[in-house]
Write a structure and sequence with these properties.
With about 260 residues, the chain is an alpha+beta fold. The protein is about 55% helix and about 15% strand. It has a 4-stranded antiparallel β-sheet. The protein has a two-stranded antiparallel ribbon with strand order 5-6.
């Protein structure tokens, strides 16, 4: 039972034995991630605009708190309206007229992300596109159309303010090269370690004499030490020279023959 337990020293020994393979696969993972990041993935940029929508302020100051709570509950309604065709059709038409965008209302809906912080009446409209200029223009066009039309859609939504127009942001939001390279490195390391243990577990060679005597139950007849090719050649040359029979060589010179 104890032989089936893998010790920590065996783990390190396995990793050290297959270290070159692990390093190579980690390098391959980084190269693959870099190739996908820089050659296969399209850079994306985003830009955000902020809008604030309030209903009519009540004349009674004591009702203002209740009015704020009502406004907070209406945020989800405003978020839904922002992604509806009543807003996006007009925004797409305005962008197409200016030559800033060639897509449809569906494309705008896919490019938009509407969010707000908890207990906040500020709605954040974020547009994502392959160009930072297009992302900025989409966010601004949608918020401007919303400001114009929401007061007609909802009678009480009279106080619509664009707190912040979308600004040009040239920093890409995806892909993120450092994160992708780290993922590629990690994937290569995991794959290398996994293959190292698979090769070790599927290796059926006898690694210790105890396996013959204790596990198999056969007598040990003998063992052969490991020798590299250099030692084997040297040993063969030494043995050959030690067992060789001396021979006589005749040299002929002007002074006669010498043995």
């Amino acid at each position: 039972m104890e032989d089936d337990v893998i010790s920590l020293s065996q783990v390190f020994r396995t990793l050290r034995k297959h270290l070159i393979m692990i390093i190579v696969l980690a390098f391959v993972g980084v190269v693959a991630a870099a190739g996908v990041t820089y050659f296969a993935m399209t850079p994306k940029y985003d830009s955000s605009a902020l809008i604030l929508v309030n209903q009519k302020s009540p004349a009674d100051a004591g009702q203002q708190y209740n009015q704020v709570q009502t406004d907070l509950q209406m945020i989800n309604t405003y978020k839904d309206i922002l992604t509806q065709p009543v807003i996006l059709d007009q925004a797409a038409a305005d962008l197409q007229k200016s030559g800033q965008f060639a897509g449809t209302a569906t494309d705008l809906a896919n490019a938009l992300t509407i969010s707000n912080n908890e207990n906040s009446q500020v709605v954040k409209v974020t547009a994502e596109a392959t160009s930072p200029y297009v992302a900025r223009d989409i966010a601004n066009a949608v918020t401007r159309v919303f400001k114009t039309k929401v007061t007609k859609i909802m009678a009480n939504a009279k106080n619509v303010s664009i707190i912040s127009d979308a600004k040009l942001n040239k920093g890409q939001v995806s892909p993120r090269p450092m994160i992708n390279l780290a993922v590629g490195l990690l994937a290569g390391l995991v794959l290398g370690i996994l293959l190292a243990f698979i090769r070790e577990l599927t290796d059926t060679t006898v690694k210790a004499p105890e396996f013959i005597t204790d596990t198999v139950g056969l007598p040990l007849l003998g063992s052969i030490s490991d020798m590299d090719a250099r030692n084997m050649q040297f040993g063969h040359a030494t043995a050959a020279s030690s067992t060789a029979t001396p021979t006589l060589t005749r040299r002929r010179s002007n002074g006669g023959t010498h043995v």
